[in-house]
């Protein structure tokens, strides 16, 4: 099957006066139709920059400097063509016709995404009128239907509400309704449950999974929470300092992790089976400052399996180690590495 989205060697850097932040520095992953891909990694590892790159929402001084973002785009005539989103003009017609219609985003800051001076109904209807060939009455009907689908009580009345009048959970539902307004084939959710309590979080995750099945859409779900990944993802991409360390089906990542970083991440989750009083292992060291990236594998200064002269000398490539998992680590990689600066 051809992936719906195929990200290859994506590099997005920020060119600041103080230096270059290599926020995303060679990321590869695929998303197949109807699949839920979870991207997980600690704060600052480049999750948001990756998906902002996919949406062509990177602003100066940031820039996509290399790589491909291949997407199965449906043009106005309904024909499918594979286009490279990385090559599109961020302000051009094509990406504007894709954003919100074929690929929708639930951003990391939902409060900031709704305008406080327009009702949520106006904003959902505006998205529908922009992308679908319908009149205002039909747009209104679709908006009510979407709000109903996401479990909004009294959807007809709620059309007239402002985002700040809604509780966190309802605002998140309204955001999901707006992102689904035009039936996207890919929904990208950037930490959509971080700001809400655990009960509401579980409801929102279930809701997303129900909608995903109903609409047969693919989801990229971004989080730093492995518990959330276990609940929602089919396939997991583990990121560290702008690179993919490991990727594979969710059960392999949890029960058969290969990369020392994935293993360390999993060990740092509390378990109800751990003996009482046992200290929770943490990953030694801290994430380096963006300006002082380590040479070689970015994880080597914190890695228990560090091999001097190997891991700090070159960057390992992401390579399939079996028919399910890919790992970027010299413990597994005997192929030529990427020599830095190349
Ligand atoms: N506009 C910008 N200018 C300079 N650096 C940036 C900018 N946006 C992001 N960065 C840097 O890029 C790196 C990746 O940031 P990103 O927001 O993608 O992290 P994240 O994985 O989404 O983290 P979080 O879990 O905290 O949301 C960080 O070092 C960040 O400081
Ligand atoms: Mg982020």
What does this structure look like?
The chain is an alpha/beta fold. It has a domain at 116-183. The chain has 11 helices and 12 strands. The protein has an 8-stranded mixed sheet with strand order 6-7-8-3-9-10-12-11, sandwiched between helices. Strands 2-1-4-5 form a 4-stranded antiparallel sheet, with helices on one face. A hairpin with a 2-residue loop joins strand 1 and strand 2 (19-31). Helix 4 crosses helix 5. The model has no long low-confidence stretch (mean pLDDT 89). Adenosine-5'-triphosphate binds at residues 14, 16, 21, 23, 41, 43-49, 62, 108, 224, 290.
Question: Which tags fit this structure?
Answer:
single chain; 342 residues; alpha/beta; eight-stranded mixed β-sheet; four-stranded antiparallel β-sheet; 11 helices; 12 strands; globular; binds adenosine-5'-triphosphate; binds magnesium ion
């Amino acid at each position: 099957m051809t992936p719906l989205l195929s990200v290859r060697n994506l590099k997005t850097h920020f060119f600041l006066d103080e230096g270059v932040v290599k926020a995303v520095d060679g990321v590869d992953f695929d998303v197949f139709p109807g699949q839920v891909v979870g991207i997980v990694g600690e704060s600052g590892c480049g999750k948001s920059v990756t998906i902002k790159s996919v949406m062509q929402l990177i602003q100066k001084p940031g820039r996509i400097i290399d790589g491909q973002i291949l997407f199965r785009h449906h043009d106005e005539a309904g024909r499918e063509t594979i286009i490279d989103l990385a090559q599109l003009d961020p302000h051009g017609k094509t990406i504007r016709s894709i954003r919100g219609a074929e690929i929708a985003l639930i951003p990391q800051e939902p409060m900031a995404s709704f305008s406080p001076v327009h009702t949520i109904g106006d904003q959902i209807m505006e998205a529908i009128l922009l992308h679908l060939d319908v009149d205002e009455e039909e747009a209104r009907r679709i908006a009510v239907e979407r709000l109903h689908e996401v479990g909004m009580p009294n959807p007809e009345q709620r059309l007239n509400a402002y985002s700040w009048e809604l509780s966190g959970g309802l605002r998140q539902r309204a955001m999901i309704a707006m992102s689904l307004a035009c039936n996207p084939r890919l929904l990208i959710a950037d930490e959509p449950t971080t700001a809400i309590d655990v009960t509401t979080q579980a409801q929102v995750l279930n809701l997303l999974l129900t909608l995903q099945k109903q609409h047969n859409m693919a989801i990229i779900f971004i989080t730093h929470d492995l518990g959330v990944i276990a609940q929602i993802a089919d396939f997991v991409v583990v990121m560290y300092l702008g690179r993919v360390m490991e990727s594979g089906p969710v059960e392999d990542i949890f029960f058969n992790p290969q990369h020392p970083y994935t293993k360390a991440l999993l060990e740092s989750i509390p378990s109800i089976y751990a003996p009482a009083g046992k200290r929770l292992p943490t990953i030694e060291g801290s994430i380096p400052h963006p300006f002082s990236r380590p040479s070689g594998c970015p994880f080597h200064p914190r890695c228990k399996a560090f091999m001097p002269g190997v891991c700090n000398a070159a960057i390992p490539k992401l390579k399939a180690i079996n028919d399910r998992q890919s790992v970027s680590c010299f413990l597994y990689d005997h192929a030529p590495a990427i020599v830095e600066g190349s």
